[in-house]
Amino acid sequence: MLSKFLVNTFIKDNNNTKEKKVRNKFGVLGGAVGIVVNLILVAIKVSVGLITGSIAITADGFNNLSDAASSIITIAGFKLSNMPADKEHPFGHGRIEYISSLIVSFLVILVGLEFVKSSAIRIFNPSKVDFEIIPFILLIVSILLKLWLAGFNRYIGNKIDSKALKAAAVDSLGDVFASTCVSISFLASKFTNFPIDGYVGVVVALIIVYSGVSLVKETLNPLLGEAPDPELVKELESLILSYPHITGIHDLIIHNYGPGRCMASVHAEIPSDMNIMEIHNIIDKAEREISQKLELYLVIHMDPICLSDDEIKVAYTEVSKIIKYNPLIKSMHDFRIVGEGDEKNLIFDVVVDSENLKKIMDEQALKNDIIEAIKELHPEYNCIITIDHDYT
């Protein structure tokens, strides 16, 4: 397989994809191969377009030129994102990779809009397209080249989990479809004088614009703050709960500062009657070991939980039953009773389904429903409820 051959030839330690230098080499290789392949395609398609007078083929050729420029930006993005952290950017420059992808996306849209205009002019002012067998064969070769490039970008994109390279793979597949349409229209020009070239040019141009818009959305998500990878969340939760005396976790938040650059914070529930130094050593060990294993920066906040008191145990069981049947509530944590005698505060947090909560009721209405149900059982409790949102 050519993709594996290129990776093994130019990246010696290619299985160590967590290493930033190795990851950077993958990005540079992907960009370099993209430049070479796309420049070859530009030479083929622009030549064929000029020889035959086809606006659709010429448009497709200039689309490949923008792809070559995109590959240059991709290389620059990987290089710049690998710069070390500094005073102004303590978490490094990893998000530059996303910004470079965004620039590429806008370039793709710009090229597409320009050729919508050119193709529309061709529809209203048609000119003859001369079909020739050699240019047609060259177009077929270009489709096969682009198909291979899509597979190559997908292969290395999956290997290092790069949004930029995965986006390039999707863009390449879009180009394969566009080039196939162009080739069909070129072949059809041999049998009809209808200005099919202009119409197909518009279709190809709109596909290019759509591809660019999709790439913008893909690269904006991590910049705006998308939900973390579910697999990372699951592994992080599993590792934290594997440490002794940590009975539960909540309020997990993961910030993405670029590929391989994450910061996570979480609240860990621990028995309130434990020695503070003993549990601190456990938490400190968990932070250090998990940070190293998952290559992120983890901060754990300790939440002491008392469930050995009979009154708390009874109240916890009763409140658990109340919230169990509410589909808007995902979980409950930080449960405690504060005060004595007739003045007791029942304090706890609930994690809600934020999206559905907004559709059905507001937070205060949800609190009132829970408080009303608790008051029926324990009118002596003053309920203090905090609504939490799930950020994973």
Automatic annotation (TrEMBL):
SUPFAM superfamilies the record matches: Cation efflux protein cytoplasmic domain-like, Cation efflux protein transmembrane domain-like
Protein keywords: Membrane, Transmembrane, Transmembrane helix, Transport
Every Cation efflux protein cytoplasmic domain range: 228-304
Membrane topology: Multi-pass membrane protein
InterPro entries per the UniProt record, alphabetical: Cation_efflux, Cation_efflux_CTD, Cation_efflux_CTD_sf, Cation_efflux_TM, Cation_efflux_TMD_sf, CDF_Transporter
GO cellular component, one term: membrane
Membrane-crossing segments per the record: 26-44, 96-113, 133-152, 164-186, 198-216
Localization in the cell: Membrane
Keyword Nucleus: no
Major localization class: membrane
Single GO MF descriptor: monoatomic cation transmembrane transporter activity
Domain Cation efflux protein transmembrane: from-to ranges: 33-224
Domain of life: Bacteria
Record-linked NCBIfam families: CDF
UniProt record similarity statement: Belongs to the cation diffusion facilitator (CDF) transporter (TC 2.A.4) family.
PANTHER family cross-referenced by the UniProt entry: MITOCHONDRIAL METAL TRANSPORTER 1-RELATED (PTHR43840)
Protein name: Cation diffusion facilitator family transporter
Organism of this sequence: Clostridium thermobutyricum
